[in-house]
Amino acid sequence: MTSQTEMKNSPMKEKSAEMDREYTGSEILLRCLVAEGVDRVFGYPGGAVLPIYDSLYDGHVKHLLARHEQGAIHAADGYARATGKPGVVIATSGPGATNLVTGIATAMMDSIPLVCITGNVAQNLLGTDAFQEADITGITMPITKHNYLVRDVNELPRIIKEAFTIAAGGRPGPVLIDIPKDVSNAKASFYYPETVHIRGFQPTTEPHPLQIKKLHQAIAGAKKPVIIAGGGVISSGATEELVRFAEGSMIPVTTTLMGIGGFSGVHSLFLGMPGMHGTYAANHCLLGCDLLIGVGNRFDDRVTMGRIDKFAPNAKIVHIDIDPAEIGKNVDTYIPIVGDIKNVLTAANEGLPSADSSAWLQQIEQWKEKYPLQYKQDDDTLKPQWVISHLHETTHGEAIVTTDVGQHQMWVAQYYRFVHPRSLLSSGGLGTMGFGFPAAVGAQLAYPDRTVIAVTGDGGFQMTAQELAVIALEKIPVKVAVINNRNLGMVRQWQELFHGQRYSEVDIGGSPDFVKLAEAYGVKGWRAHNPEEAKQVWQEALRHPGPAVVDFWVTPHENVYPMVAAGTSLEEMIMGDED
Amino acid sequence: MKHILSVLVNDQPRVLARVSSLLGQRNFNIESISVGGSEEPGLSRMVIVTYADDRTMEQVSKQLHKLIDVIKIQDLAFDESVVRELLLVKVGANSSNRAEINSIVEPFRASIVDVGANSMMVQATGDRAKLDSLLELLRPYGIKEVARTGVTALPRSSARSKAMV
Predict the structure, then answer these.
(1) pLDDT grade, residue A2 (50/70/90)?
(2) Which homologous superfamily does the CATH classification assign to the domain defined by A384-560?
(3) Selecting from 1.10.1740.10, 3.30.1540.20, 3.40.50.970, 3.40.50.150, what CATH number does the domain A20-189 have?
(4) Is B69–A201 a contact, with Cβ atoms under 8 angstroms apart?
(5) Are the C-beta atoms of residues A178 and A148 closer than 8 Å to each other?
(6) Where is the ACT domain (chain B) (predicted)?
(7) Residue A439 pLDDT more than 50?
(8) A201 classed as catalytic
């Protein structure tokens, strides 16, 4: 008991009194959460977490009761994406825990810090196929950064400290803590460590100066350079450093889906998104560049199309990332730089040379002018691209926008010109339908005064629509914009283009009336069939102080363009239906 | 190319599952894995034998490093390491050929560790090739059961084994 002797000399007598008192595991858990600065958790109760919910009853930590554990974890994820702080979710054993799995995998793929707390059956029952028992640490091993099964209440504070350290540190990600019921009921004294040393978790955050020198040399010698910025820019909080880096070196920037908002969508050096539904300018920069600087991105197959042989064929590739395992994973790297993006760019901005890129930038301007994003608009029908542009105009790019996955997600990425980091919250890696709406709930709780729009499809909305009950009850003013095309649009698009128009199981016309569905929950609903109606009802929805659902009845067979088919080179862009 | 990875890991429940799950998830092949104690209390040493090109080995090592329970990874060079495996084999034997079997076993510096009416058990240590050839020589007598530990290894004091990042 070394800490006891320390406490005797401490001026804070109460603290030693606190140390003498014993707390249950669940009380300790909540005290740890408070010590971590957690003011809000998301969850759903059940048998194995009864002690934890009993401790929550005292109200030191606010809890949002979801209607499904998946809703809870996506909300925690949306909270984490919007704030940068770890999101915390609580679920019971067995089905409660397994309902978290999609949300954990979603956070893992997008490097989002989450601390997931699950109850489990008491240790004497572990391994006996007890009621509501599931091996959640085994199940989540490949989709968590790390997980813990707490076997002794005395280990709980250290484990929680480690979990927060690991979730938020280095490349962020989800950590799960499984607490058997006897542990949350057991008593121990409480001491929360200020810091914790984890021998197997020592991320490299400072770049090697020699690599920065090499980067400078490469930039000075480049005529056709391009930066591809990913989600790492956002999680590292390096937006300003990136702007300074790009402006100082005169290098244009393309942002991956996860990087959107990490560089302003209205900056003259901005190229748009690259890859499968990328802009002509962004993709032709990748094809023609002589220097490609990857910043917190991971060269995934929606960007490279899985054709490494044809990806940036003439470029020296620089790859900056905090996770050394990303470097060299998908593409060969000429200059690897391991470190926190903010630190790396800060170091790179010292003595940063300018590239000889004026001819290249002129060429890019021509591409942007000649091949802008486009769609055919008419006054009678409602085009999904128009709806997204309208959402942008009416919110001046200042809203937090969450999406589901598919066509509407790509249109948001293309037509909502994000100017701030942490404003597009989208499941980029796992591609989780049903993510957007609950994520918006979490984001709105983090920022009660900002406009938060959940752009969703008629397919994805139905995967987590039950959370309407939560926004109604808690008066959470999320605006749900349903881009309703009566189809599973992206799958339909692939079937049209690559499966000879054999439309297999993509017609979901039997969906409920979303206006009535919203109203059944006590949420105000509107519908629009053409641009005039859309303008009017969207204004009403924005002005409405509470939650709102707007059902945008868009043309059913619109496709997302440009498009590059998987497995082909970025050169082979399909620009539109007429091509 | 064949590689031996020597991995120091926390002696925690499920650490073997974490490592083997990761190798499977990332589509890496494993020839053998062995786990046991190490020089430091609280840490175990895992020895993993795998076939992979250099690029894949770099990925294996980097991905393993991301596991919180992995402390240190070394890629051991075959020719600069002592690489050993333990073999137990129960071979058919009777009073007429016991001596003959013994004469096969001796040059391998293997030993007879159990004798029954119709069989005897041979214990041998060495590298994989040596144990394979011993098994081949014993095959004509009838091999009843075989157990092998998988490879374990340490670098020789002269070796320059590289610690992998």
Answers:
(1) very low
(2) Thiamin diphosphate (ThDP)-binding fold, Pyr/PP domains (3.40.50.970)
(3) 3.40.50.970
(4) no
(5) yes
(6) 4-78
(7) yes
(8) no
Q: Which of A150, A327, A329 to mutate to test the interface with B (most CBs of B within 10 A)?
A: A329
In a domain, B158, yes or no: no
State the ipTM, two decimals. 0.92
The number of residues making up chain B comes to 165
Q: Indicate if the pLDDT at residue A295 is higher than 60.
A: yes
Q: Is B71 part of any domain?
A: yes
The pLDDT assigned to A7 comes to: 41
Residue with tokens 């009845």: A553
Q: Select which of A27, A36, A42, A69 is catalytic.
A: A69
What is the pLDDT at residue A348? 98
Tell me phi and psi for residue A147, to 5 degrees: -145, 160
How is residue A504 written in tokens? 């297999």
**Residue B39 sits in a domain of what CATH number?**
3.30.70.260
- To the query of whether residue A276 is one of the catalytic residues in this protein, the response is no
Domain residues for the domain of B144 are 82-152
DSSP 8-class letter at A487: B
The rounded distance, in Å, linking the Cα atoms of B111 and B102 is: 8
**A127 in reach of chain B (CB within 8 A):** no
Give the CATH architecture of domain A209-371: 3-Layer(aba) Sandwich (3.40)
- Domain count along chain B: 2
DSSP conformation class of A485: -
Distance from CA of A323 to the nearest CA of B (A): 9
Structure confidence by residue, pLDDT tens digits, A260-279: 999 999 999 999 999 999 99
- CATH topology identical between A20-189 and A384-560: yes
A170 in the Ramachandran plot: left (φ > 0), alpha (ψ -120 to 50) or beta?
left
Residue A1: what pLDDT?
35
Distance to chain A for B7, nearest Cα, Å: 12
Pick A141's closest partner by Cβ from B10, B17, B59: B17
What is the Cα–Cα distance from B12 to B7, expressed in whole angstroms? 14
B68 closest CB neighbour out of A137, A198, A324: A198
Cβ burial of B116 (10 Å; 0-12, 13-18, 19+) is exposed
Size of interface A-B (CB pairs under 8 A): 40
Q: Name the residue ranges covered by the structural domains of chain A.
A: 20-189, 209-371, 384-560
Which residues touch A294 (CB under 8 Å, ≥6 apart)?
A228, A230, A317, A318, A319, A320, A321
Q: What is the DSSP string of A175-226?
A: EEEEEEHHHHHSEEE----S----TT-----SPPHHHHHHHHHHHHT-SSEE
Whole-number mean pLDDT of chain A? 95
